Amino acid sequence: MSEPVRRAALRGFVARIEAATPPGRDRALDALRGLAILGVVLGHWLVTALVTDSGTLRAESPLGHLPEFTPVSWVFQTLAVFFLVGGYVAARGHAAARARGESHLGWIGARLRRLFRPVVPLLGVWAVATGVMLACGVPWQTLHTLGKLVLSPLWFLLVLAALTAATPLVARIHPLWPLAVVLHVDLVRFGFDGPDTLGWLNLPAGWLVPYCLGTLLARRGPLARGAAWGLLLGGAAATGLLVAFAGYPGSMVGVPGAPVSNLNPPTLAAVTFGLAQCGGALLLLGPLRRALRRPAAWAAVALLNLCAMTVFLWHQTAMIAVTAGGLLSAGLLGHGPLTGLHTVPDGYAWVLARLAWLPVFVCALLVCGAAFHAYERTTRSGTSREPRPPRRAERRTDARTGAGHA
Q1: What's the gap between Cα 147 and its chain centre?
Q2: Phi-psi map region of 265: left, alpha, beta (phi>0 left; psi -120 to 50 alpha)
């Protein structure tokens, strides 16, 4: 295919995505969801190292060796934004379903099927892979490390599923109520030496805060710009005070070996930081809406959202595949562990090497996406909602007119 024809076909593809988008769709929300997913993926790739140790693989974090990179965790810990968008979309979707006469159970069932359908191939592939590795004598420590990396993101889906199912109950809860729960749990846990298990009450309560903020926006309309700035600055100030004077860790992700994690379970510092992120996200809505009026920009966001859950579920597998492939290749070639892939993340050389490995991770993730994204986009009737590439006849028309077909 010649370059002019290829460009015309691409313009036609973009035009069809534009034409298929409902006029009332808030494209900025899709952009925020996509940014949140990308933040989690890049964060995991940057702060997770699989280190070879006496024939086994163990996980380490560069943040444990290079604390000066702690601000990286502030940029890439974006789950609060995802729960904010999730609460807003769920509340609006549930209200629309009720207006159509759809039952609550029917709405929940459809939402949960879309949420968990992409999990099935992931569990199937890793069940087979685990059996093969056991048969080959792979050490249990390595299996535990890999299994934890692959399955740990599923906690997010379980919490999101629970909150989605409870949307009719929690949609009218003000975010201050779950915030008060988190505050009192941390006060008992850290101020009065309460049991660490008490902290797990914050797993639903902590993520209820941005989720309920999203349902509040769906119910009452957008926040004033001043209120969004208040969330951003107030949440950032509260987080800074908690880290500086209350003993909370500065990292917003877990660090292996650290006595306290802000994320597992969520702490008050993680929640106030999430509120700051939500304020920033709300301030971005206007600029994002203006930017996404351009069909090409919107097409990129739309395509990312079509496979967002696949990207989230398979990004750790992609990293593991590259790590395992590099380890086998290094062994066959007689090389030692590869910097940035199998070595201890204890220096700037590791950081630079890991940045160089990111494009390889992306390629592996694209392979996973090509293989498994259909499980995400298939509806109950078995038809795909993904925009299809131009047919040959459409390509000829596109080349003459530059217009696409809806």
Answers
A1: 18
A2: beta
φ/ψ (deg, to 5) at 378: -80, 130
> Could you tell me if 94 and 222 are in contact, meaning their C-beta atoms sit under 8 angstroms apart?
no
Look at the block and give the residue holding tokens 């299809």: 388
* Angle made by CA atoms 311, 314, 48, in degrees to the nearest 5: 100
The type of residue at 160 is L
Confidence band (pLDDT; 50, 70, 90) for 378? low
pTM, two decimal places: 0.88
pLDDT bracket for residue 1 (50, 70, 90): low
